[in-house]
Amino acid sequence: MNHVSIFVLDQDSAYDFYVNKLGFTVHTDAPMGPGMRWLTVCPPEQPELEISLMAIADGMLFKDGAAEKMRDLVKKGTFGFGVFECNDLQATYEELKAKGVVFHKPPTKEFYGYEALFADDSGNWFSLGQKK
Amino acid sequence: MTSKVYIYKRVVQSKLFIDAHYSEAIDLDNIADEAYFSKFHFIRLFKSIYGKTPHQYLISVRVEQSKLLLQKGLTVTQSCTEVGFESLTSFTALFKKYVRLSPSEYQRIYLAREEQIRTAPLEFIPACFASQYGWN
Asked: What mean pLDDT comes out for the span B27-56?
């Protein structure tokens, strides 16, 4: 996989979260006309995986009030977008917490290993595991 | 577990200290002292968590930050000084070691790509995404 989309409430705020808090790198940041922007970021160790931070805006993708419904769902934390792995879960948890990242679950031992859950600035949540 | 968490917090604080003060003349011995570890123990723990010694990590942060300055159009000399390297020669050598390009080559390639994104953004966007947004 080389592209995946995450729907965000505000691209400027998402930029700050993914770049300055998670430490991702900006791959492409292209203005696409008034209020439109193609913004992709990559985990530092996966420069080939572009995560597109997609704005939820009325238009071709969201029609007939779908954008408002989608924004509500994202805010409510409806969507879990994936699993990130780090080298050291406890250290990453402590660092992200110190940077203000909201965790729904601290590092916890599950039958498949240790896992934490955190949310981005929009409400999308992710599992955070540790490389074995 | 409590003492383990305490130790982790100390090491993470040291890492965050480097993140915030990379451009200054950081004395890494002081960081170990502030973390209440022996220097040897601190370096070993730091490396086990981050895969680099504190010194190696500091160099990598400075190089990464210099990339951001080069992206903004600062000269190689300005970027070198701003991130805390004292010698242009060592900066250039370390940059090349980490990035596999010289600072000036990196800047030229980055700025050329930015210009291409500005003039022909659709070349950087998969067509399926562009059509969903009505950009093509």
From this structure: 83
| pLDDT value of residue B34 | 67
Q: Into how many domains does chain B fold?
A: 1
The count of other CB atoms within 10 Å of the CB of residue A72 is 12
ipTM, interface predicted TM-score of the complex:
0.86
pTM for this entry = 0.91
What is the rounded CA–CA span in Å between residue A26 and residue A43? Answer: 9
Q: Chain A closest CA to B5's CA: distance in Å?
A: 8
* DSSP state letter for A19: I
Nearest to A61 among B12, B15, B132 (CB): B132
A60 contacts in chain B (CB < 8 Å): 131-134
CATH of the domain at B89: 1.10.10.60
Helices (H) and strands (E) in chain A, counts: 3, 8
Instruction: Tell me the residue range of the domain where B27 lies.
Output: 2-132
Work out the minimum CA distance from B88 to partner chain A, whole angstroms: 25
User: What is the model's pLDDT at position A88?
Assistant: 93
pLDDT in tens, B96-120: 999 999 999 999 999 999 999 999 9
Q: Is the CATH number of domain A3-130 3.20.20.100?
A: no
Distance to chain B for A27, nearest Cα, Å: 10
Residue with tokens 């170990």: B32
Q: A48 — contact with chain B (CB < 8 Å)?
A: no
